[in-house]
């Protein structure tokens, strides 16, 4: 059964045929839809949504009247009331579902409101992405109608006082359309499994029964799953058991550091498609082959703003100032890094999601994720981004013909100056000193500020090579095991303290 044979509801079919529109006009339409829906909420009344809707330029008036928020601020001022069962706080009606998200650095779980309106918008984007696969002419159509292996968190939800909380995949599974079920693997029973190791064991046991056409998930955990299947059944590649596997839909982290090791598990090339699906909403997806970036979702359920990621709008620790210079989509420039603010159909308003992005094609609204607002290193003005690190690791991996699936970097005092300390996962034979020198050289080529500071206050670079399972072991010790968790590329604060304890054997 080919997926394109499915008859979709008329409303969805009409939406899929909508012509491309002016992104600014689309975004203003989305903003007005959000404001009208939330005008009678506590939030809408306080920040005069009616007045914004009547303004000549509602986008600018919205920015003038509504403050920006990070998670802690919006939770303390507003969202905590919804957990107490109050309806109409930031979005109409009572919030019945929350996505639990800890990000890559926070210790406590975040409760992100999930509404039917948000899930409906996410579903529309998913369907649009599915239909965009017709642009990928070099993959067999038959693979699209095969099984879809989605490796996410547990679909079992925790019941709270009047609400359910859990992984976004669990909430989405409850709302999945009936036609999705025949394709969905590993199936409801395995997907509910909370123990990640048991879930992987059950997937490995079932693998010969499935005909998988594409896989969806975070690269590290998908790679681990495939390695277990290959070892269990004494295979040469994953294509020996899943010959129709044609593409991998990934997100959450840059795929480049994983690509070399990942492709060792394949018997033939597959297509890689990047998505940007956060707990707060489906933000972007790659809709054409060989695109440098993902297309932002501008016409559905999220209003986007872009704060230049610089010393004017952010302090040295990556904290945004109270009144940043926020731009709308028609005001951005290609090649510059921006922190993303979103307003959504779940009651997030001018919410700092924590990611930084860069426009690769403004006309197409295509972006790449360059890092996190707090995951960068600038001890002495080196302004080293995760994007710089990923590219350096990729280049060195290709040059030395080694796989580096994980790494993290720490900024530390050194004598009376500073140094960077790299911890790199590599199971191939490699000289740590050579690897350190090569990465340092690549970073100097990629980042002029880094090159300058390496001659002055950034006195030294150190590098330790560790087995990959050490990184996985740390995530297990932190309780961050599973499809939604990614190893932080820069370690600071409590996570750094715990990492050092773990390496000394004091944290298990």
UniProtKB/TrEMBL annotation:
Coiled coil: none
Any one GO molecular-function label of the UniProt entry: acid-amino acid ligase activity
One Pfam family hit: GH3
Domain of life: Bacteria
One GO cellular component, as annotated: cytoplasm
InterPro entries, sorted: GH3 (IPR004993), GH3_C (IPR055378), GH3_M (IPR055377)
GH3 middle domain boundaries: 297-361
Domain GH3 C-terminal: 388-492
PANTHER family for the chain: GH3 DOMAIN-CONTAINING PROTEIN (PTHR31901)
The protein's name: GH3 auxin-responsive promoter
Organism per entry: Filimonas effusa
